[in-house]
Amino acid sequence: MTEQATPATEAAASYDVHAVEAKWQPVWDELQPFRADDDSPREKRYALTMFPYPSGDLHMGHAEVTALHDVIARYWWHRGFEVLNPMGWDSFGLPAENAAIRNDEHPATYTYANIETQYESFKKYAVSFDWSRRLHTSDPEYYRWTQWLFLKFRERGLAYRKNSPVNWCPVDQTVLANEQVVDGHCERCGAEVTKRELTQWYFRITEYAQELLDGLDELAPTWPDRVITAQRNWIGRSEGAHVRFEIEGREEPITVYTTRPDTIFGTTFMVVAVDSALAAELVTDEQRPAFEAYRDEIRKETEIERLASDRPKTGVDLGVQATNPVTGERIPVWATDYVLADYGTGAVMGVPGGDQRDWEFATAMGLPIVRTTEPPADFDGDAYAGEGPAINSPAAGIDAPLDINGLGVDEAKRATIEFLESADRGTGAVNFRLRDWLLSRQRYWGVPIPVVHCPTCGEVPVPEDQLPVELPALRGADLKPKGVSPLAAAEEWVNVDCPQCGGPAKRDSDTMDTFVDSSWYMFRFVSPNDNTQAFDPAKANAWMPCDIYVGGVEHAVLHLLYGRFFTKVLADMGLVDFREPWSAQLNQGVVINEGAKMSKSKGNGVSLGEQLATYGVDAVRLTLVFAGPPEDDIDWADVSPSGSLRFLQRAWRLSGDVTSEPGADPAEGDVELRRVTHRTVADAATLVESYRFNVMVARVMELVNATRKAIDSGVGPADPAVREAAEAVAILLSLVAPYTAEEMWERLGHEPTIARTGWPEVDESLLVQESVTCVVQVRGKVRARLEVAPDISEAELEAAALASPDVQRALDGAEVRKVIVRAPKLVNLVV
Ligand code: ANZ
Ligand code: ZN
């Protein structure tokens, strides 16, 4: 033990944390107290925490989230639930692959070595996981079912291939989902993302957009607000209209999507996305050279540049005219970069009076500007997007088949949509910002897509009985990113006979995004060793949805949206009878140091291993739980693991001081201490259930102090109330500091394991406050203090006050004119 861990003052009764850790680990291995029994008659609870990537050993972040999570799981065991608390590894993905390339070794070597390291660390960290359910998403036994699910999704039309511009990371040499592009940069490596035209696999998550949005209402009470908001924004539902504009010399009209159909009279031009097929098709021969030059310029730009709101607007006139479907006016059609090809229809009606981007564009190109909503008198901006009566709709003297002048925005929208529908020139429409999920990756370390491409038959799914399509064992050197999947070059693997016609064909050489693997792992945990199916539906229905999901808020729109989508599809496949996988969610904060994120370059990293070696597992866990509310960030510079250790030693010493026998009847013990104990146990339950774990710890600290005081004062170590208090301390501490709790439990004369003893029973009668002090005033002066029952009636209190000898003396025979009673605290006698 180090010096810090054994302050001199504590030396007398020394508590060797490391010896205690070494002592209990094998005992728990033997007892397996946290194996979830599918057939248990107890009510089921499913406690899930996000499983890690196997990059390196566990760090402070893992330590924090699992310490918080374990409070809940261990509490549920104590409260009599059968708890499923599984753990595994999200073991495919880029980190392992990149590390393998650097070291010219196989990603599997790196991955499985790290998994073993993390597994050992989790065991030592004593999280109450059911290790019999451990899984790794990179095992063929797991990814066989990921492939199976992919094929089922494909059968349902929910997995498909299309050619379109996609996000491309030039460093990782792979495509990225929209969700993996953060402010225009690759979420993994930070490189600026560019666009490429590629044929890729997608999941049709947009088909579930409305349901994914609606489900959030149901989750809102039990999910963090910021996650709900992030998902709502990501799904991005808007209501408006599809409006059809006839184009000169073109059969088909162009449909635009607008959220403001009421502004149609202010449409002075149309703009289409420069990189859309539509723009290339519309442009006149005369304008084509200018258009192509402009398009080539834009293609070099990143999304972040394109969408920056402060940059000057650019564009090219395509040379064609469109007709306003309400006014019949002819307006020019332009191509620009501020319209996105893959949002709405990729074409926009330009309303400079109502939309700032359009205002800037019109100003730059010299196009007319007409306001259609009257701004307030004091408005001095450009475009006005707020409330106000419609104006110029139509403008004075213009004859139009629709007149919405004077209507408010909502009414004007409704009237316009009604007109468009009756004239067959448009329809009311709902639009979502959510895009389909691009799932294919041109990288090695992932699940192969189980499809064969045959020159005769086309896309052929690999038959189910041939799953899994195993990854060939390539060496690190062959995995270097080349822009095409390394699997395409693995001749022996990629060339196969077509499952349908037997002719020569090629396997699909892309792999799946790792987010596919983690979208259904919570289902696999209910029957992780079942090799006949992805998961056992009956068990899933019995255990799920997960009662709590603890993890980082960084997954707010990726993993958490994908997992919800998968669950809805599984429900539609008839496999499960619920549609949301996670009923409640808790986000932990981040562990920082000296006010900043820990990083190698700043040199402010805190090593979990060193902390554990210095203070022991329990003190580190206690520090993390006690630091503040779970959602708050923890600055390691502000907390005191040595203080935590001192507290644990204090608690541990109580267990050695108790001299009564186990089973001593607490009813015969000191009632004051008993009140503190029972109040603490009752409050601890409420505090844990409302995630106020830090307050729960503070209350245990108070109980330890009260118990110590009782021992050292008149009550003494033999009083059964002291034993009751020490046992309660041990049980409450077992949620946070399992080693210390187990050790206390043994010293108190009990068998292991304390983790499964059950919650202390609360005696309600001990929660009632016995008396309160009532002040009696005569002529405004305090003349007596009475100890009365807290629920005393006004009449009783008045009688008691008048009966008091002190009051009688103060009255000295004077007549009481008025009695003011505020039960139970005050009686005021006016004389
Ligand atoms: C005319 C208009 C007038 C608009 C006005 C706004 C205000 P959200 O809420 O994000 O759905 N838009 C449509 N498709 C677009 C695309 N592919 N790229 C860029 N902008 C696009 O916004 C929808 C609005 O964004 C649409 O309504 C359209 O501009 C624009 F006073 O149409 B609006
Ligand atoms: Zn074929």
Describe this structure in words.
This protein is globular. The chain has 26 helices and 32 strands. Mean pLDDT is 94; it is low at 1-12. Helix 20 (641-657) packs across helix 22 (693-712). The protein is an alpha+beta fold and 831 residues long. Zinc ion (ZN) binds next to loops. Ligand ANZ binds next to strand 11 and strand 15.
The strand count comes to: 32
Structural class: alpha+beta
Tally of contiguous helical segments = 26
Helix content: 25-40%
How are the elements arranged and paired?
Layout: H1 17-31, E1 44-49, H2 60-78, E2 82-84, E3 88-89, H3 94-103, H4 107-125, E4 135-136, H5 140-155, E5 159-169, E6 174-176, E7 181-182, E8 185-186, E9 194-203, H6 209-219, H7 225-235, E10 237-247, E11 254-258, E12 269-273, H8 277-282, H9 288-299, H10 303-307, E13 315-323, E14 330-336, E15 347-350, H11 356-365, H12 409-422, E16 426-432, E17 437-438, E18 440-441, E19 451-454, E20 458-461, H13 491-494, E21 495-497, E22 504-507, E23 511-512, H14 514-517, H15 521-524, H16 537-543, E24 548-552, H17 559-572, E25 585-588, E26 591-593, E27 596-597, H18 608-615, H19 617-626, E28 634-635, H20 641-657, H21 671-689, H22 693-712, H23 720-733, H24 738-747, E29 772-778, E30 781-788, H25 794-803, H26 805-811, E31 818-822, E32 826-830
Parallel strand pairs: 1-2, 1-24, 3-4, 12-14, 24-25, 26-28, 29-32
Antiparallel strand pairs: 5-6, 5-9, 7-8, 9-17, 10-11, 10-13, 10-16, 12-15, 13-14, 18-23, 19-20, 19-22, 21-22, 26-27, 29-30, 31-32
Bound molecules: ligand ANZ and zinc ion.
